[in-house]
Every structure is written in structure tokens, then in C-alpha cells.
Amino acid sequence: MKKILIFLLTLSFSVASSQIYTSRIIEVEPGQMENFVKAAGEKTQKFNNSEDNFAFSTFEILSGTDTGKIFRVQIGSPEMMDGGLDPEEANYWSKNVNKYIKSNSSGRTVMWTRSADASVWPESTRDHDLRMVMFYNYKDSGEQDFWRFRLRQAKARAAMGDDQVNSAMHVMNCASGCDGNWVAIFFTYESFEHQREINANELPKLVEKYNEMYGGGSYEQDVESVDASLMPNGRRVVHMRVIREATSN
Fold this sequence. Notes:
- The chain is an alpha+beta fold.
- The protein is about 35% helix and about 30% strand.
- The termini are close together.
């Protein structure tokens, strides 16, 4: 659990394939965000910092149709999922947090698993608070093209050594609750300016390493293959920011 809690601070996800990540979107009552964060944080600190219970990570959505809402992720083992929430914990949330919630998508939860082979987690990214999340929906026929690029990119990044891109890349597969082959990729940054600097100065080095490993022009060719592998409107980008006071330690 300690490894999972460390990963949470970067929405980073544990390497353990057995972990289940359940996300939902929460709409807070107008003017009640501060109270919600305080109450959710107190609940999280009271119940969700031990090895024998779920951990939680909480984010504010910064862009897209759900701007201003909360993205909350529960992390636990299959055994925890079978047992469900402790009644005392559930009652605490109901009594102290629910009153600040306008809409809770508990009926539209999504379960994710982490693709460790396609993910990269540099040590330098542990304190990053900003997330750029890229959601993809690929065709059944596009599975090979989609995953070839994702796996190659992770290997190229790992091969960069001291020139490693200073952003974590966590690739999550939708295991339940999605219509189609959805994948969410969480990139971590210190700030929007940090993201701009990486795009300008570090990503060209990744492209160079990728082409060095897989052949000249392969990066561009594989990106085109990924584009062709997607469903119509099969790509969207959302930014989020960690709410640390409502995230497990």
C-alpha cells in the first residue's frame, strides 16, 4: 500500500496489475468547493491511509465539459473490492460530505487497470501536480497499431537515460464501464509552463531516440497509424490538478 500511496501523489498508479482503479466524477454544489474539499479530506485522512483499506486520489478538472468538477479515484485490491466500503466509512461520507455534492456519478463509475509495459515513471516526477489526460477509443481492428506506438514510446523513453522526459506517463486500460476500447494516458507536469517547456525541448529528443531505435521516420509513421486506428472522435484531452488535502498520504 505504501507504494500505491506514493504513486497517488502523481496519479501515478501502482505497478501491481492486481490493483483496481475506480473513477467517478463529482459535481459540487455552487459555492461549496472549499467545504467539500475540507470534508472529503478529513474523511480520506481518517479512513484511507492504512494498508488494509482503499486509498483515494482527488483532482479538480480544469478543462472540457466537466470543468470545475471533481475526478476522484479509489484504489484497492480485488479482495477490497469484494468486501466493499466499511459501513462506518460510508456513513461518514454520507453524513459529512454528501451535503456538499450536487451530482455524484456513482452509477457511472469506471474501472481501470494499469499497463505497466506502456508506462514510465521517472523519479523526478513525484511532486508534479498538473495532469494532462489523453483519452483514446480505438477500433477493434486498430488494436495492434495503437499498442505498438504506446509500447515503443515507453521503451524509447526508458532508453533516453539522463535525457529522460521529465514527465510521468501512466497508461490505463478501461476494464469495466466503458463503451469501446478506451485508454486514458496520464502525463504529469509541474505547471502549464513546464508542459510547454517539455513539448519544446524534450519531446524532440524522444522523437530522435524513437527513430534511432525503430528506423528513420518511424515515429511519424506510427503516429499516423494510431490516428487511423481510432474511432470517430476517439481522442480528447483534459487537464486536471491534484487536490492533495483530499488525497491519501
